[in-house]
Structure formats: structure tokens, C-alpha cells
TrEMBL record:
<dbReference type="InterPro" id="IPR000425">
    <property type="entry name" value="MIP"/>
</dbReference>
<keyword id="KW-0813">Transport</keyword>
<dbReference type="InterPro" id="IPR022357">
    <property type="entry name" value="MIP_CS"/>
</dbReference>
<dbReference type="GO" id="GO:0015250">
    <property type="term" value="F:water channel activity"/>
</dbReference>
<dbReference type="InterPro" id="IPR034294">
    <property type="entry name" value="Aquaporin_transptr"/>
</dbReference>
<feature type="transmembrane region" description="Helical">
    <location>
        <begin position="131"/>
        <end position="151"/>
    </location>
</feature>
<protein>
    <submittedName>
        <fullName>Aquaporin Z</fullName>
    </submittedName>
</protein>
<feature type="transmembrane region" description="Helical">
    <location>
        <begin position="34"/>
        <end position="53"/>
    </location>
</feature>
<keyword id="KW-0997">Cell inner membrane</keyword>
<keyword id="KW-0677">Repeat</keyword>
<dbReference type="GO" id="GO:0005886">
    <property type="term" value="C:plasma membrane"/>
</dbReference>
<keyword id="KW-0812">Transmembrane</keyword>
<comment type="similarity">
    <text>Belongs to the MIP/aquaporin (TC 1.A.8) family.</text>
</comment>
<feature type="transmembrane region" description="Helical">
    <location>
        <begin position="203"/>
        <end position="225"/>
    </location>
</feature>
<dbReference type="Pfam" id="PF00230">
    <property type="entry name" value="MIP"/>
</dbReference>
<feature type="transmembrane region" description="Helical">
    <location>
        <begin position="163"/>
        <end position="183"/>
    </location>
</feature>
<dbReference type="InterPro" id="IPR023271">
    <property type="entry name" value="Aquaporin-like"/>
</dbReference>
Length: 240
């Protein structure tokens, strides 16, 4: 249960901090943090929770990460569904908190006919810059695949684990810098579901892509790392 609570709180903080920055601070008049600020917010939430509770649960905070670690032989299949449920509940709870806070401003309403409403993900007319379903799928697949390759490499027994949280957080920052204009960045099915639940409409109808593409990309990364990259003997010495 401690592992599941760690995943709940870790995912809650990721969605609250990342999506909260997008909702409240990204476009604030004159002082808005913009895309770069939102990207950094997502990265920092992962860094913080990786060091806070990563030692308890492994610090997944993302169903795609759980699938990728399973495919890479680093996570037991019996824990897959419980982790995903805890992550989704944490994400939806965070989205509910954000909705409650946003409702405290006069005139607040979610316009689910616009791209990025309530920090939701989308493609086509619901992509921030009008990218197609195909473009969105490729983006989410490739970025999640590399995200998992970096996670698997940074947490490998031969890697310097003291800095793995920083490497993972910076990677998530870069991912957002690339893909916010394309899909509003998912690479995390729980994060996509949580915002879509409160947005409804077409963003909720499109959420399937933000489960399928990240999970498939993560599974591909797990198999690639396990079969092509993972070091089984003593690591090669680095000559400077």
C-alpha cells in the first residue's frame, strides 16, 4: 500500500504542478511563464517526487513508465494494474483540485471546443497548432520511447543513480519543449485522462491516442533496452 500511496501522491504532484502552471501561469499578462516555464514545471515535479518517494515505489507516476519498465524486465506484471489505478486516481484528484481552484475566479468556464482547454491534449483541431492524428501519434510514440530509454538507462545498476532523477526530469522538460505545440504534450496517459475527464467533449473522445501511443512507445523502449542496450557484464571503462 505504501507503494501505491507513493504513486498516488507523485502523480498528483506532477499533474497539479505541471497542468497547474499551464492553467494559471503560462499566459498570465506580461509575466506569464510561457511554454518554457510549463516544460520546466513538469520536469521539476518529476525531479522532486523522484527524490521524495522514488525510493518507495520506484517513482513511475505514469502508466506508460510502468508498462515500459515491465517490458524492460524491471517491474513485475502483478503490480501493473494497481500502479496504473493509483496513478489515474492521483491524476484525477489533482485535476479536481485544479478545477476547484479555477472555479474560484469569476467567469471561469471550460470551453471544450478549443485546443488545450483545461490543459487537455488533442490532435487535429484540438492540437495547439493544428497537427494531424498521424503527427500526434508519431510524436507521442517517439518521445515516450526515448523517455523510457533514458529512464531505463539512468536507473540501470551500472549507472550513477544519484543523478537519475535529474536526468529524468530534464528529459521530461525537453519533451515538453518539443511537443507542447503539437499535442499539448502527454507522454503520460494518466495526465491526459485527468484533464479530459473535466474537459469532456472532443478532448475526452481523443484521449485514446494519449493512452495508445505512449504505452506502445514505452513497451518498444523496454524491449529495445532489454535486448540491445542493457549491460549484463562489467561496464566498459571510460577513458578520458
Amino acid at each position: 500500500m505504501k507503494k501505491l500511496f507513493a504513486e498516488f501522491f507523485g502523480t498528483y504532484w506532477l499533474v497539479f504542478g505541471g497542468c497547474g502552471s499551464a492553467l494559471f501561469a503560462a499566459g498570465f499578462p506580461e509575466l506569464g511563464i510561457g511554454f518554457a516555464g510549463v516544460a520546466l514545471a513538469f520536469g521539476l515535479t518529476v525531479v522532486a517526487m523522484a527524490y521524495a518517494v522514488g525510493h518507495i515505489s520506484g517513482g513511475h507516476f505514469n502508466p506508460a513508465v510502468s508498462f515500459g519498465l515491465w517490458a524492460g524486465g524491471k517491474f513485475p506484471i502483478k503490480d501493473l494494474i494497481p500502479y496504473i489505478i493509483a496513478q489515474c486516481i492521483g491524476a484525477i484528484a489533482a485535476a479536481g483540485t485544479l478545477y476547484t481552484i479555477a472555479s474560484g475566479k469569476a467567469g471561469f468556464a471550460i470551453d471544450n471546443t478549443k485546443a488545450g482547454a483545461f490543459a487537455s491534449n488533442g490532435f487535429g483541431a484540438f492540437s495547439p497548432d493544428g497537427y494531424s492524428l498521424q503527427a500526434a501519434f508519431i510524436t507521442e510514440f517517439v518521445l515516450t520511447m526515448f523517455f523510457l530509454l533514458i529512464i531505463l538507462g539512468a536507473t540501470d545498476k551500472f549507472a550513477n543513480s544519484n543523478f537519475c532523477g535529474i536526468a529524468i526530469g530534464l528529459t521530461l522538460t525537453v519533451i515538453h519543449l518539443v511537443s507542447i505545440p503539437i499535442t499539448n504534450t502527454s507522454v503520460n496517459p494518466a495526465r491526459s485522462l485527468s484533464q479530459a475527464v473535466f474537459t469532456g467533449g472532443e478532448p475526452l473522445a481523443q484521449v485514446w491516442l494519449f493512452w495508445a501511443a505512449p504505452i506502445l512507445g514505452a513497451i518498444a523502449a523496454g524491449f529495445i533496452y532489454k535486448n540491445l542496450l542493457q549491460q549484463h557484464g562489467e561496464p566498459d571503462k571510460i577513458v578520458l
